[in-house]
Amino acid sequence: MKIPSKVNRFCKYCGEYTEHTVVLVKPGRRGTMTKGSRRKLWNIDHGYGSTPYPMFEHKKIKVKTTKRYDIRYKCNKCGKMEVQKRGKKAKKLEIK
Ligand SMILES: [Zn+2]
């Protein structure tokens, strides 16, 4: 999926339609020792829910073919960034 690098959209800070540049934000690395990731490891190791595989086998299986991309719009007039509620879902996303 290709999206244009510059779009005209409404800026809530300026209160008018201005030109925005499209920024693709890469997800940061999850911490390995946070409570959520420790709980997930425990669940996978113990076959909790729908993951009845040990960790090394479980990692090989790739189920999802698309992912949700985090696209943000930066206003060229005031320089503020606007966040979408939900990103776009696509196999591969390019900014022209
Ligand atoms: Zn603005």
From TrEMBL:
Function, as annotated: Binds to the 23S rRNA.
Record GO biological process: translation
InterPro entries from the UniProt entry: Ribosomal_eL44, Ribosomal_LSU_eL42, Ribosomal_zn-bd
Gene Ontology molecular function, alphabetical: large ribosomal subunit rRNA binding; structural constituent of ribosome; zinc ion binding
Keyword vocabulary terms for this entry: Metal-binding, Ribonucleoprotein, Ribosomal protein, RNA-binding, rRNA-binding, Zinc, Zinc-finger
GO CC, any one term: ribonucleoprotein complex
Binding locations of Zn(2+): 11, 14, 75, 78
Transmembrane segments: none
Pfam families per UniProt: Ribosomal_L44
Family indicated by similarity: Belongs to the eukaryotic ribosomal protein eL42 family.
CC cofactor note: Binds 1 zinc ion per subunit.
Entry cofactors: Zn(2+)
Organism: Candidatus Acidifodinimicrobium mancum
Organismal lineage: Archaea, Candidatus Parvarchaeota, Candidatus Acidifodinimicrobiaceae, Candidatus Acidifodinimicrobium
Identification of the protein by name: Large ribosomal subunit protein eL42
Summary of subunit composition and partner proteins: Part of the 50S ribosomal subunit.
